[in-house]
């Protein structure tokens, strides 16, 4: 339906006027579709009118590459890369009216969040640095040191605009590490105290689970302690180093918690299993204590699982596309007529 409506719209070379931020910007339907992440519409327009790939904003002088990067539309940018290589080479070299290259626009802090991620300063910062690195790999090497009309390089813009977000992430990491260190210390102390008792009388399962709980709790404690005592995390650290450390500490803590519960079940089953009357008691303990691990898994693991996967992604997710983007696109196109 989206593509069919686009085909029936006089989208080129009609112009529409969009007021935003106090500046008038003259745009085409291709750039409107790219801004709103309508990949099918972008593909249809480029297939029907290939020359439209060189459209640019009349005042801002931004082409489709600039718009896709500024609006964090990775899928649109990938679609442009699939076109003729010479078009991509020309478009990526262009500067906007303020002398910004594509890397300058990628360095600016986005007002959006990525689609499919939870809210959180750490994930937002990871997405920001991932976007910057993603665009940097596609651009000429001299872009990183090229100043705009204000004399700012992309690296300077990234540092200045993300300073508050970096500080928020640093405080969040410190608070998170402090909480986990307290919990890991309790598990470590419990496992350590049990290891001095006659653990062999409860069976092999109990002995192994206590040892595993102690080792994983120590791993979690040392990991979070290393993060807590480290200096302020540099922006590049949010790309892979910090997320992987947080994942290691969290998974280790979860493993120590589960091992501790397994040792508790093993001790109960070893002493009480021969007596039939205690079987309901064992089942009740399992039913009551199992949700402790399950609640932790479902509330914490999705966050760290996303951090782990994003650490190895080369193409970042596009920003969240608002539900009314498609209707807004056709409304703007009708206004152009």
UniProtKB/TrEMBL annotation:
It is found in: Cell membrane. Its main location: membrane. Keywords: Membrane, Transmembrane, Transmembrane helix. The keyword Transmembrane helix applies. InterPro entries: Ankyrin_rpt-contain_sf. The keyword Ribonucleoprotein does not apply. GO terms for cellular component: plasma membrane. It is a peripheral membrane protein. The chain crosses the membrane at residues 206-230, 242-267, 282-309. It comes from the Eukaryota. This is PGG domain-containing protein.
């Amino acid at each position: 339906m989206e593509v069919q409506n686009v085909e029936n719209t006089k989208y080129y070379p009609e112009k529409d006027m969009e007021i935003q931020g106090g500046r008038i910007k003259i745009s085409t339907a291709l750039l409107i579709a790219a801004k709103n992440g309508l990949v099918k519409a972008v593909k249809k327009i480029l297939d029907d009118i290939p020359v439209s790939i060189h459209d640019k904003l009349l005042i801002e002088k931004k082409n489709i590459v600039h718009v896709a990067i500024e609006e964090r539309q990775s899928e649109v940018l990938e679609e442009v890369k699939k076109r003729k290589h010479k078009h991509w080479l020309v478009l990526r070299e262009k500067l906007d009216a303020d002398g910004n290259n594509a890397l300058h626009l990628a360095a600016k802090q986005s007002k959006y969040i990525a689609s499919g991620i939870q809210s959180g300063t750490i994930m937002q910062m990871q997405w920001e640095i991932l976007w910057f690195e993603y665009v940097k790999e596609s651009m000429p090497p001299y872009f990183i040191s090229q100043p705009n009309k204000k004399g700012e390089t992309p690296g300077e813009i990234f540092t200045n605009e993300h300073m508050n977000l970096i500080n928020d992430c640093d405080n969040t990491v410190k608070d998170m590490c402090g909480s986990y260190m307290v919990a890991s210390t309790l598990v470590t102390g419990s496992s350590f105290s049990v290891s001095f008792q006659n653990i062999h009388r409860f069976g092999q399962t109990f002995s192994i689970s206590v040892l595993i709980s102690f080792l994983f709790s120590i791993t979690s404690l040392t990991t979070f302690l290393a993060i807590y005592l480290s200096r302020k995390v540099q922006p590049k650290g949010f790309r892979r180093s910090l997320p992987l450390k947080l994942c290691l500490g969290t998974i280790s803590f979860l493993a120590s918690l589960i091992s501790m519960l397994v040792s508790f079940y093993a001790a109960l089953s070893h002493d009480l299993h021969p007596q039939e009357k205690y079987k309901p008691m064992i089942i009740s303990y399992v039913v009551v204590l199992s949700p402790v691990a399950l609640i932790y898994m479902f509330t914490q693991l999705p966050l760290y699982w996303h951090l782990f996967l994003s650490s190895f992604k080369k193409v970042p997710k596009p920003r969240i596309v608002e539900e009314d983007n498609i209707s807004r696109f056709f409304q703007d196109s009708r206004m152009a007529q």
